[in-house]
Amino acid sequence: MRLTRRDFIKAAGGLGAALLTSPFLSKVAEAIEREKKNFPVIWIQGQTDAGCSESILNTVQPTVVDMVTDIMSLRFHQTIMAASGHQCISVLHEALKSDEKFILVVEGSVPTKDEGVYCTIGEDENGRPITFLKWVKELGEKAMYVVAIGTCATWGGIPAAEPNPTGAKPVTEIIDPKKVINLPGCPARPHHLVGVLAHLKLFGLPELDSKRRPMVFFSRLIHDNCEMRPFFEKGDFAKSFGEKKCMYLLGCKGPITYNDCPNYQWNSGLNWPIRGGSPCIGCAAESFIGSTGNGIYMRLPEAKVPGIPGLKVKADKFGTIVGAATIGGIIAHAMGRVLAHKKKKEEKKVEEER
Ligand code: SF4
Ligand code: SF4
After folding, report:
1. What is the mean pLDDT of residues 50-56?
2. What is the CATH number of domain 222-345?
3. pTM of whole model > 0.90?
4. Is residue 245 within 8 Å of 277, Cβ to Cβ?
5. Taking the chain, what is the end-to-end CA distance rounded to the nearest angstrom?
6. What's the gap in Å between 331 CA and the centre of ligand 2?
7. 252 CB near ligand 2 (under 6 Å)
8. Which of 280, 217, 274 has its CA nearest to residue 242?
9. Sequence spans of domains, the chain
10. Which atom number of ligand 2 is nearest to the Cα of residue 186?
């Protein structure tokens, strides 16, 4: 049976690691084989620790070999390619000259200060280093699609943290954002890249949100699916790391972070940070460490919420932090409970007075 877009989205967004299981993957692989279009992938790395490459290459299912042959058709990746020197850089020059369509994957943020001199890849015919900034601009303009992989490429990440000495910027500030698909995460998640590349090849551009993230992976907050949510609802909070309760008071960023970790977990579905006793540090959130950063274990803003013991949210911080809207949602939710409780009390009083 042919793989439909509907099948694909359903499986990729469903509960459990459907995308990573062999039967589903072989269905995708069959569809990819049948598909005549072949978009090569050029993967360039700028201001990055290569953690996203490592995350993708550590994937167990699909294997690295499946990825670089069947799913990606990888032409250039400066960390893993066998070629070196001019032989290797010529792949990029050729891509600029040729009419062949390709997908550009950009890992890491782009230094823009001093004409981008802080990060270079290869040299031109006169032996002058070519900046990463120039490659992103030129290859990005030529590419059919650009996948910004990881939080550094998506939001600026750690290199863009204050005082941002290299003027690090995300990919959407360097090239036309309409071409870009953002896959935030520190590191990025293997099934996000596999899913996006397979979708581009089989069905074209996936549905994206206003921040250019695929809806199938980023439409829900960690907080929405968290297994500690019942503790949050009861106002039962962990006081120390490792305690199996809601970690809101230990700085959990689940309420402001869109990602699918509770569904797919990590290490092929073995576990995920919150079940392991650590708060979500918001690695996929726009505010992660960068210029608008929340400290990793800094608690989200506090204010006293009547009727919810232990939950305090500082109202003066609202609007100054990316998560304010979500906190507003939390308060609205909490206030809803308080009002419902008040209404019940009033009804009881009326009942008693009759
Ligand atoms: S605050 Fe964090 S630990 Fe608590 S329910 Fe939300 S995501 Fe889970
Ligand atoms: S739980 Fe939070 S910090 Fe951990 S990987 Fe998922 S989004 Fe990133």
Report:
1. 91
2. 4.10.480.10
3. no
4. no
5. 68
6. 23
7. no
8. 274
9. 5-218, 222-345
10. 8
Q: Please report the pLDDT score of residue 39 as a whole number.
A: 78
Q: Is the pLDDT of residue 253 over 80?
A: yes
Encoded tokens for 236: 């039962």
CATH superfamily of 5-218: NADH:ubiquinone oxidoreductase-like, 20kDa subunit (3.40.50.700)
Pocket test for ligand 2, best of 246, 259, 265 (most atoms within 8 A of CB): 259
Predicted local distance difference test score (pLDDT) of residue 310? 54
Cα–Cα separations (whole angstroms), residue 169 to 119, 215, 233, 293 = 13, 23, 38, 15
Q: Tokens 């692989």 map to which residue?
A: 29
Residue 277: other Cβ atoms inside 10 A: 15
Least trusted range by pLDDT, from 28-37, 80-89, 325-334: 325-334
Is 262 close to ligand 1, i.e. is its CB under 6 Å away?
no
Tell whether the torsion through CA atoms of 61, 78, 103 and 39 is positive or negative: negative
10-48 confidence digits (pLDDT tens) = 666 554 444 545 555 566 666 766 665 667 999 999 999
If you write DSSP's letter for every residue of 66-126 in order, what string do you get? HIIIII--EEEETTT-S--HHHHHHHHHHHHHS----EEEEESBEE-GGGGTT-EEEE-TT
The Å distance, Cα 222 to ligand 1 centre, comes to 7
Given a contact cutoff of 8 angstroms between Cβ atoms, the answer to whether 288 and 157 are in contact is: yes
Asked if the peptide bond before residue 187 counts as cis, ω within 30 degrees of 0, the response is yes
